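Good morning C.,

I know you're traveling, so I'll keep this short. The sequence:
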Amino acid sequence: MRVPDTALPSRPAGVPPKRHWLAWTVVVLVCAALSLPLLHHARRPGGMPPGMPGGAGGIPVTVAQVHTAPMDVYLDALGTVTPLQTIDVYSQVTGRVLAVAYREGELVRKGQLLVTLDAGPIQAQLDQAQGSMVRDRALLEQARVNLQRYQEARQQNAIAEQTVSDQQSLVRQDEGTVQNDQGSVQYYRAELAYYQIHAPITGRVGLRLVDAGNTVFSGSTTALATLTQLDPMTVVFSVAEDHIPKIQQQLAARAGLRVDLYDRTQTRQIATGKLLTLDNQVDTSTGTVKLRAQFSNAQDQLFPNQFVNARLQVDTLRDARIVPTVAVQYNGQQAFVYRIKTDGTVALQNIQVVNSNQDETAVEGLELGDSVVTGNFDRLQDGSRVMVPAARTAGRTAPAGPAQ
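The tokens, ready to paste straight into the viewer:
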């Protein structure tokens, strides 16, 4: 085909013919580069870029089907590990420490010896009181024998009535003296027991707070040892006052609600126990009420004053419609999912979240068997065409290709 001369750029005067053809070469290369994307798209089925609605291709996604199953309803709260008993052991008497019988951090049994104090002075007082009681008992026996003699003599009118009455009074005085001596002996024995300090409960003893040779004083605010009961262990946590009626209803219906404990990251379950009771009043500053749950702690997995995440099971949903939690997206406060239609496109479907656990969520607004997208959301929009490779399905999935 002959190109008209008017279509060719005129060669300026003084420009060599070689530069004229170089300019044409540049123009042709630029046009070819601009036309390559259009030619590439034109060769695709349907003549549209991938991912656009209506194209034969689609965005690869993973999907899951809506199914029904029971789902536990939990209340999450931050809790503190609280022992049932924590006891500070003090000295009730004054004395010098002779020996410390426990090792730091060991588990001691109830009644086990902890600290021994010097009981020399109180032992001497006990011995003195016992000696006085022996003497006064002998005097009482003598007075009783004399009273019996006087009574026999009075029957024969050998002595006056006043003598018998005086002897009866002397016997009662001696009886009172002996009873006083018995009280003194019991008192000093009780005091003597305080010089050997024993564990009041079974628990773990803390760091040593006193050494042998020190003098401890009665009424001192310095403890000799601290004992903490470790098994069973309790956890105290708080929930909003709005949940009180539901918790009370469940406690009345069954004995003990299940409580699960997790670590700080909520990835590792530490223990499982049951709810013991609620506090008797609401904290007006926070609008919450405290709850106490009890756990077996034979392996010492719970440590006093440790912070844990508590999950209280307050109900169980029957035949809940469940989707994977990753399928639920949020637009502000509105929850939605991408539901796959029969034509292979997705529709943005608003839903209502009824309950959510870590991996699954119970929702309303979807039908049983609906397929929802569980991945590759960044390329999706309402009406996007998708495809479901068999190797990329997740959980209960729809078959490869458009959902039926």
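Safe travels,
E.
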